[in-house]
Amino acid sequence: MSEPRKLEVLRAIVEDYVHSREPVGSKALVERHHLGVSSATIRNDMAALEDDGLITAPHTSAGRIPTDKGYRLFVDQISAVKPLSQAERRAIQSLLEGSDDLDDVLDRTVRMLSQLTNQVAVVQYPHLSRATIRHIEFVLLAPRQVLVVLIATTGKVEQRVIDVGQDLGDDAIAALRTHFLGSLAGISLSRLTPSLPGVVSSVSPGQRSAAQALAHVLETLAHNSREERMVMAGTANLARSNVDFPLSIGPVLEALEEQVVLLRLLSDMAQDPRGVAVSIGRENPYDGLAEASVVATGYGPDSTAKIGVLGPTRMDYPTTMAAVRAVARYLSRILGP
Amino acid sequence: MSEPRKLEVLRAIVEDYVHSREPVGSKALVERHHLGVSSATIRNDMAALEDDGLITAPHTSAGRIPTDKGYRLFVDQISAVKPLSQAERRAIQSLLEGSDDLDDVLDRTVRMLSQLTNQVAVVQYPHLSRATIRHIEFVLLAPRQVLVVLIATTGKVEQRVIDVGQDLGDDAIAALRTHFLGSLAGISLSRLTPSLPGVVSSVSPGQRSAAQALAHVLETLAHNSREERMVMAGTANLARSNVDFPLSIGPVLEALEEQVVLLRLLSDMAQDPRGVAVSIGRENPYDGLAEASVVATGYGPDSTAKIGVLGPTRMDYPTTMAAVRAVARYLSRILGP
DNA sequence: GGTTAGCACTCGACATGCCTAAGTGCTAAC
DNA sequence: GTTAGCACTTAGGCATGTCGAGTGCTAACC
């Protein structure tokens, strides 16, 4: 039994199953692909593949379907990433150009990716760490309530309202703003935390506690807030592939809503040499996503923020991987160096 | 045939059907409710209700289920809004307190409402129109790219990056900022538009076109942007009530993603005297939502922003209406006067 | 040794027919 | 206006039979 042909058979099974959604049998296989051998031979190969745990039969006398392990082998060794069509490339380019607003760009990107792949698409907000502080604004909303705004050079704006714990007047807040801004303008967000204690300690004691609260918020804004969010599109595609999630799409929707889960999953995924990371079925630890695969990659200056799609394990991996990679590249380009 | 009993029968049918999800027959009706008459009498009443188009039979020899019109009558005339339990009230209160960030509050609110009702919950960002301008910031990102930030007194922040069409230096942008801020600080967002031409025309001719672009963005930020967004939670609940959307939940998910549709629907809904608006099934014009009902109400100072839930027409209206109303009240209170 | 043909066997999918329970509509009596 | 009774309809469950796709195995073949 030749090893190359065995892999060829696996490839054929994956492709046919992805295409037809039905277990594929030995006879159909020799008909659709010109493998040059008879169905009996294929049967032997299939038995071997089943022993290896790469395919499985839903029941006796049905065809075989790939297992998670089978998809994994397919993705890693067999498939070639299918390049996008010229039309698709043009569509991406034209849709993504013509807007500068970050929210808007991400929104368009994710819709585009979802249409391209017919799956759910997600994109994480870009990380801020390489940006530097452009401006800080404190706005007094009530005697103790302050709106804190942090503006970074990348064009990102974070804001939050806090209770500073003591009454402050307009003058006091203006003084604090000048003080913070003078000390912090121009430094990078990643170096914000070490700078804050110095700034706070040089504030007059009467406003020390307020300054402390403000510093804490600034730190939070710089690190946690926005980049922990994501934009999503195409959840309706889940319903269309109803059949692919045998139980219900409920758990999948739950996982999608619990963004923390998705974010961890995205960042835990190891990057493939081809630049795309793939998580197949139970490879990810979340029960709700046991029947789902995620194809993702990084984008932006240092590829820390993620973009990807989520769909049933029975997914057209080569095309999806190509789409994710292409969209990520365009997105990186749009967002600038 | 007594008219009051007919309504009583309709009420019983709605309640039983909502409870059991199965067509309800005359016999089961007299057993579960003590109507004081025999099943034959009920049959006569049911025939009359069917003539009125309030109930319908899926097939001969099955029980009856309410029509959209039947639900409407039920909601308008028969049902009493069911007050929330003490525990529920406490849960709402404790969950919503303890956070000042608007995004955070809306997020918690919508999750809470979705859990309370077991449906999809949506909330629209509060309107800005009553707020006044607190601060305007222009940040030069590149020679022609400017980040425009608009901070309102309500604690809301809007931002966008634009291309001003001409090269500007740091000095020029600072001058523009001072000029805009001096003329506009303190005016209400709703009066922003009429003020802008004057501001632009008093800018030196060399920067006129840039000022024009900036003014245009400010106008957009003040009116359109954020309040046209919404937060959503509980889409997984749709999947659980799979049975209730006979075809597929796909179209519903699509409608939910196309937020424009939802926003229009929410604002078009007429408020009920009891303070909650209800749209039942095909009463709303969107095909994807033909099997869905929306229960919504306004919140905030002048009740212009909406909050509501969406679920199958077969929904527990009294409880849902109570939940929506209660959560809207707490939310209004949290957001302040 | 790998490949092939042939054959018995398994099992899901589908159709058919039958039966029961639920429920209706109608009529005649109260 | 209400009720009892009865004939009628129909979905759904169940048993049965048939068909076809597909497998696994063995023996023959190159």
Task: Name its key features.
homodimer, 337 residues, alpha+beta, 5-stranded antiparallel β-sheet, 3-stranded antiparallel β-sheet, 13 helices, 17% strand, DNA-binding
Got a strand count of chain A? Answer: 10
- Biggest interface, CB < 8 A: A-B, 37 and 37 residues
Strands ordered across the widest β-sheet of chain A: 7-3-10-9-8
Oligomeric category: homodimer
Could you give the distance between the termini of chain A?
A: 52 Å
CA-based gyration radius of chain A: 26 Å
Order of helices and strands of chain A: HHHEEHHHEEEEHHHEHHHEEEH
Content of β-strand of chain A:
15-25%
**Class derived from helix and strand content of chain A:** alpha+beta
- Total count of helical runs of at least 4 residues of chain A: 13
- What is the average per-residue confidence, as pLDDT of chain A, rounded to a whole number? 86
Could you characterize what this model shows?
The structure is a homodimer of 337-residue chains. A five-stranded antiparallel sheet of chain A has the order 7-3-10-9-8, sandwiched between helices. A three-stranded antiparallel sheet of chain A has the order 4-5-6. Chain A contains 13 helices and ten strands. By secondary structure, the first copy, chain A, is an alpha+beta fold. The A-B interface holds A 100-102, 134-135, 137, 139, 141, 145, 147, 149, 151, 153-155, 157, 159-163, 233-236, 238-240, 242, 248-251, 253-254, 256-257 and B 100-102, 134-135, 137, 139, 141, 145, 147, 149, 151, 153-155, 157, 159-163, 233-236, 238-240, 242, 248-251, 253-254, 256-257. The structure holds a DNA duplex (30 and 30 nucleotides).
